Amino acid sequence: MSARTGPNGKPPVVGIVGIDGAYGRWFARFFRERLGLRTTGCDPALAASPTPRELLGQCDVLVFSTPIRHTAAIVDDYVQAAGGDEAGMLWLDLTSIKQVPVEAMLRSRAEVAGLHPMAAPPKIGSLAGRVLAVCQARVDRWQGWLAHMLDSLEADCVDVVPAAHDRAMALVQGLVHASHMTQARVLRALAADAGGLPLLHALRTVGYELDLTVTGRLLSGNPAIYEGIQFDNPHVLPVLRELAVATGRLRDCVADGGEDARRALRRDFIAEPAALFDAGELASRSHGFDRLGYLLADLAERPCLSVYLPEDRPGSLRELLETFEALGINLASIHSSRTPDGQLHFRIGLDALPVALDTLRKAVEDAGIGRVLEASDAAG
Ligand SMILES: NC(=O)C1=CN([C@@H]2O[C@H](COP(=O)(O)OP(=O)(O)OC[C@H]3O[C@@H](n4cnc5c(N)ncnc54)[C@H](O)[C@@H]3O)[C@@H](O)[C@H]2O)C=CC1
Ligand SMILES: O=C(O)C(=O)Cc1ccc(O)cc1
């Protein structure tokens, strides 16, 4: 039996419930293009979509890629529609919470694994460099195929049971998102009176910049996900209560204003939380903050040129740099970066230019090594 084949010795057909959504589309492509499998799916957003019964009849692996709030009820519909015929299938889901969806899938007779990618669908065709939580709830004959599928995803897989996943996510996602939504709310209330966002941005610190990056991502994302992460993981409410208590205590210390209150702030909000981490970790995180500060400064550097090197071969970067050398141009920074479309390129920050930027641009293109990206395409 090859790694591509399922327990019956044939390559499985994969059905995706929610195939028109962000991850549904990404996984459909992954199964088709990376694993060479036939895929099908359903989605109410599509003009024509099979019913659960029809979809079940067409596939061997079923992937639920549906809104957090509705996944369990949708799974229940499929359990009803399958009526026992799902024995022998593999059911997977991608929901950001795991206990409720996995329990729902376990009410079927299928083999079951819950997955949670810790990132939005990437622009590239694998989850390389991303973490994937894996809850192997009832996997037996599909073990080999699932292992092959997870290998092909190239993610950093972390095996975890659903309850532990949800508890961890209440902090990894619930707390982090709550803090940033709260920051956004406070900015909305107070930024105008503090001079407006442009002034705040002009006076930015690295911490402000990093936090605002997370906040900006959250506010421009799919609100159903951020709502579901807060409302549909039962471990989030206690986290929010603790957050409110901590914020209230901090406020009370500052309102008190006395020396004891200052000592309390240092003890309760700095010294005691610091003791949670070992010294090495704190030092390396603090260094990481410095590195991100340099990175942000480099990425803000003007003038700059973003160059796509189509030939992925040793020596092409050196050839590119020779063009700069020939024109007597000193580089201030160079980073491999990605455009908003995911295209890999080199972003080169430049010191004072002895030639016009257009001349440099033309020299790079004439050398035939790379293509200069428009600033709007490279987005900084
Ligand atoms: N987008 C992200 O950044 C991440 C999403 N996830 C999880 O992946 C799952 C899907 O998320 P997205 O693709 O981003 O959401 P999405 O909203 O883009 O897609 C969900 C799709 O499900 C469809 N749908 C709703 N009811 C349905 C039904 N009864 N039958 C079939 N399809 C139905 C919707 O029409 C929509 O196309 C969610 O559970 C989310 O928590 C996990 C990690 C990251
Ligand atoms: O915006 C990003 O990149 C995210 O971090 C998205 C995200 C949303 C939901 C998840 O369950 C996991 C990741």
TrEMBL record:
Q: Which InterPro entries match?
A: 6-PGluconate_DH-like_C_sf, ACT-like_dom_sf, ACT_dom, NAD(P)-bd_dom_sf, PDH_C, Preph/Arog_dehydrog, Prephen_DH
Provide any one GO MF term from the record.
prephenate dehydrogenase (NAD+) activity
Write out the GO biological process terms: tyrosine biosynthetic process
The catalysed reaction is: prephenate + NAD(+) = 3-(4-hydroxyphenyl)pyruvate + CO2 + NADH
Pathway per its UniProt entry is: Amino-acid biosynthesis; L-tyrosine biosynthesis; (4-hydroxyphenyl)pyruvate from prephenate (NAD(+) route): step 1/1
Q: Give UniProt keywords alphabetically.
A: Amino-acid biosynthesis, Aromatic amino acid biosynthesis, NAD, Oxidoreductase, Tyrosine biosynthesis
List, for all copies, the residue spans of the domain called Prephenate/arogenate dehydrogenase: 12-284
User: What is this enzyme's EC?
Assistant: 1.3.1.12
Tell me which domain of life the UniProt entry assigns to the organism this sequence originates from.
Answer: Bacteria
Annotated NCBIfam families: PRK08818.1 (NF006457)
Q: Known PANTHER family for this protein?
A: PREPHENATE DEHYDROGENASE, PREPHENATE DEHYDROGENASE [NADP(+)]
Q: What is this protein called?
A: Prephenate dehydrogenase
